[in-house]
Structure formats: C-alpha cells, structure tokens
Amino acid sequence: MGQAESRNTDAPLTDVRSFESRSAAFSGVMPDVPLTVVEEILLNLPAHHVVNECRPVCPEWKELVDSAAHWRERCMREGIQPCDASRPPVDWCQFYFITKKRRNLIKNPVADDEFQGWEIVENGGDRWQVENNRRPLPDNTITQCFVTSYRLCLKRQLIDLQKEGYSAAFMGHLQPHIKISDWYGPRRDCGCEYQICVELLGHKKNRISVFQPEKVFIKAWNDEPWGHMIHVFKDYGPGVRFIRFTHGGKDTQFWAGWYGIRVTNSSVEICPAAERESFPV
C-alpha cells in the first residue's frame, strides 16, 4: 500500500504485509481480497463503524483494526498529531478517539450569553456582572469577562460526562487526563480575591478527587496581568461520572459596584495522556 511507507516505524507495529500469510493460518485459505486492500477500505470508513462493525468480522480484520499501524495512519490522514512529536502515544487508537472528542465541556465560558449555563452559588455585594475586558488576554478574540463585587460571588457548572459522550466504561477503563483551565484578573485600583474548586464526582455526587488551591489575593494599585490557573487530573481512579467546576471571588476593599476579580475563558477538557496502557476497544 502506498501509504505504508509514510508510517512511523519507531514504535512497535504489526506489518500489514504479514497479515496475508497469517490469514491462511486462521482460515486455511488465502483471502479473496488482500488485507492491504481491506485496510485501505477501512481507513475510509468512520472509525466507530470500523471498531463496532468491521472488527468482529474475522480474526484477520480484528488484528488489522487492533494494530497501531491502522490508527497511526488514520491520525496522519486526518491531521491528528501529538503536541510533542518526540513522545508518540503508546496507544494510537486511544489517542485518536480522545483527540477527536476533545472540546471544552464548560458552557458559555466567556460570557457571550450572560450567565446562561451557570448556577449562581453566591451573589454578594452588587451581584455578578458581565463587562468588557479592561486588559487583553493572550487570546485577543476573548473580549468579555464575569466580574465580582464587594462580597463573595461564586458560580458553578456541573458537567454530566455521560451526556457529553464519555461513558462510565470509557472513563473507568481509560481514566484519561482531565485538564482544567481558568483565567482571572484584577482591576488596577482595587484589591481582590480569586478562588476555584474543581471536583471529580461519582454517580451519587460523592467526591473522588478535588483541586482546590489556596485563594489568590491581589493588592490594589497593581500591574498584575491576567493569571492562568491550570490543573490536570491524573490517575484519579474509576467511577468518575460528573465534574463540578466552581470559581469566583470578591474585591477586598468593599467598594460598591464591580471592583472584584474578573474570570473568563474557563475550560474543562478530556485529554489523551502522554503515556497510558492500552485500553480495550
């Protein structure tokens, strides 16, 4: 197959050319269609169809679909590549499916729809407000933020992983990395406080893992740029069904209006791990 030469041979893979010889051992006869042709057909079918419908057809097809070569080739054709080319995935099938599904699970992260999608937990002082950014973020397409007041303001979202397409079996077997990201920034003329708590929850909303760093305090008359809070959950164990994301804060000088911390561009993403054991498809 013409594409076979473009594959990376550094990682272990099953040579497609050897499938034909093994086919006779499986069935006693050579296949009517060479497996190199079968693979080309499979590479042009949707991935889930290949796994669910084509893989069980016969031992030869199962071995082909399970090979690293098939998924590496599929990734290459669809432009899906690791961020660090020097550290290729251990499991290309896992890498393909997680990367294809990857997206921000937070709804309305940059205040485009006021507070739609958010549950207001605390609404102190003059309450939450939406404003234009006073300072640009590194991503200058983000122009709005949520603003807190002079008493505690907190808001949260509960992410149902099942509804987002991540089944209990998927999360339990694979335990993919869960990346949390949040941007926060002060006004120059007022001190403020920022806090965040992200919880991984079981089916009864019981805590499995939590990220809750110390509160961030910023003094008045500061030249602080936007801060970026990042955390990656790893090896958190089975049973994760929900993710609860809570953040907010207040100003520390009790000024009427909206002088407290700003938050925007929040995200929760299910990510492929750099190194992970193979998972059963």
UniProtKB/TrEMBL annotation:
- Database matches in InterPro entries: F-box-assoc_dom, F-box-like_dom_sf, F-box_dom, F-box_only, Galactose-bd-like_sf
Start and end residues of each FBA domain: 95-272
* Alphabetized Pfam families for the sequence: FBA
Which Gene Ontology terms of cellular component type are present? cytoplasm; SCF ubiquitin ligase complex
Q: Which PROSITE patterns match?
A: FBA, FBOX
Asked if the Swiss-Prot or TrEMBL record annotates the protein with the keyword Ligase, the reply is no
What positions does the domain F-box occupy?
27-74
Q: Which residues form the signal peptide?
A: none
Q: Which UniProt keywords apply?
A: Ubl conjugation pathway
Q: Which GO terms describe its biological process?
A: ERAD pathway; glycoprotein catabolic process; SCF-dependent proteasomal ubiquitin-dependent protein catabolic process
This one is known as: Uncharacterized protein LOC767635
